[in-house]
Amino acid sequence: MNAQQQSQAPSNSAAVWFSRIMWLGILFNLFFVLEQVLSPGSVNLATGLTPDFPMVWNQAHGVMVLALSILYIPAALSPLQFPAYSWLTVLSRLLAAIFWAWCVQSGQGNFASYLYTDGGFCVVLAVLLQRALPKEDRLPANVKKLFADIGARLKAAYQSTAVRVVTGLAVVVAGAAGWMRSPRITSTGRSDWVRPAASPTGSSKSFRIFLPISCRGPAATPRWA
User: Which residue, 15, 18, 66, 93, has most beta carbons within 10 Å?
Assistant: First the structure.
């Protein structure tokens, strides 16, 4: 069955409810976008952020959620046509819920309502999509197939000499960049990461960092800057 025939085929009840919940999630997102763009100060107060928190980040967040909501529309219209795409919409809710959980756990703000919203949508959509799709597109069969496809594509790609050469150059460049950014011991026995810092009065004074910069003998205690 091709994509056009599949999109025209009668949907099962789980797929119908998945589509409805997707549209409900899009509606929730739009309310969130309006609040972030039009009244960012109220959002900051409700989440426990400081009143002087830059509101441009609220508005940027709102625009990004609007863009994400637009990308939800294909899955809401035809969840069975592209199963992998529909699973990505569920994954996006999961990632958002994980982020909000970290915010709540670390005391970043009052984001529990955001956690419950994204987490709730994630669970409901995952259950409905799991029931709506055929067995080969359900978890964990689709994940196994995904990694198998990735492995096959990588194996096929590395049959090309050009791909191997480009990969080798990328590794060399990354290694060189890491070596250039790493601390090194100068001829004076000091790390080149130690730099003088200007004091409030304008005089130059070396700050102390706790990096071992020299040792005398294999069992010597490191000397700290």
Answer: 18
